[in-house]
Predict the 3D structure of the following.
Amino acid sequence: MRQMLIVLPFLFFLSPQSTLAQPLERVIQSLPIFVACAGIQTDTGALIVGVFSESQDQVNPEILAQFRELKAWYRETVISITLHDSVLVIPVNKKTLSKFNGHILWVIDADKSSKTLRKLSRKGVFTIAMQNEKMENALFAVVHYNNISEDKNIEKWRLVKFVANCTISPLRFNRTIRKKDSYVEKGCD
């Protein structure tokens, strides 16, 4: 069973009303597309999404609800690839990270967990970070968003760089992601 591990820096979860909320919202909305483009599938019917924080014992329930309530999980094109009939979102902390057996894991913060995350990546876990160049050598993918608006009161967040590091993961993106202008790969065939 393929698994997916997604990493986001803690800053994007601190203030949903802040200027950083838009890229978080864009990535959350894109999660089912990332899952489908990586060919992630479940054989149990339930797609298990974990949300990990190294610094917190418990992830905010509102954050868990955001992942659970994504409408895109139930689009026919996503279901035809992932083969899920439900989505289960669970909190994961530093004590439970190494035992996580789900398909998708978003990491809020992981300064000291990169070794464990790298091990999960090598097992076929799809790892992704947002706005974190330091994680490009430890994770399968890192996405970078920029506000391209010249007006500081208007936000126009765009994906400007999508880095895939195939040297640490057996997973590969399909052509849907690979053909994007923002896509950059390391060691992918």
